[in-house]
Write a structure and sequence with these properties.
Layout: H1 4-10, H2 17-31, H3 42-61, H4 67-80, H5 88-143
Helix pairs in contact: 2-3, 4-5
Length: 144
């Protein structure tokens, strides 16, 4: 019989970073429970840790569809990377990359909206101008 990790491998094409992230968060919540630390739950704890590693591997293979998913992948990297020494510098680098991604991807969306909104009113104003000008010209011709 296939284990949970193997079953997920079979449906790997349907997994997204968001879905895997939700599963990962649930597993981390279970592992944070004081009940799991009990000696009689060692088998369950080992299984949850194994599944957590499997999900981390699946996230590394899933493409990020947007900046939020890319940042989620960076968060996984920051939590999974455990060097023997101080991990402060790698966490700072990951945080810096995360801020850069958010700032770089946020700017074009705002510019697109602004240019779209300014183009539309100008188009409507131009369409209205020709209908007003002939009426004004006719009024001026009658006055002479």
């Amino acid at each position: 019989m296939a284990g949970p990790g193997q079953q997920r491998e079979a449906t790997d094409g349907a997994n997204t970073v968001a879905a895997l992230g939700l599963r990962r968060a649930a597993l981390r919540g279970m592992l944070a429970s004081p009940i799991i630390d009990a000696d009689d739950q060692k088998g369950l704890r080992d299984e949850l840790v194994s599944e957590l590693r499997s999900i981390a591997n699946s996230i590394s293979r899933a493409p990020a569809k947007n900046a939020v998913e890319l940042c989620a992948k960076l968060d996984v990297l920051g939590e999974e990377y455990r060097p023997d020494g101080d991990s402060g510098s790698i966490r700072e680098l990951i945080a810096s990359i995360r801020r850069d991604v958010v700032s770089l991807t946020g700017r074009p969306a705002v510019q697109e909206r602004a240019s779209f909104q300014t183009i539309r009113p100008l188009h409507n104003a131009r369409a209205a101008e020709p209908t007003q000008q002939p009426a004004e010209a006719a009024g001026e011709a009658k006055a002479d």
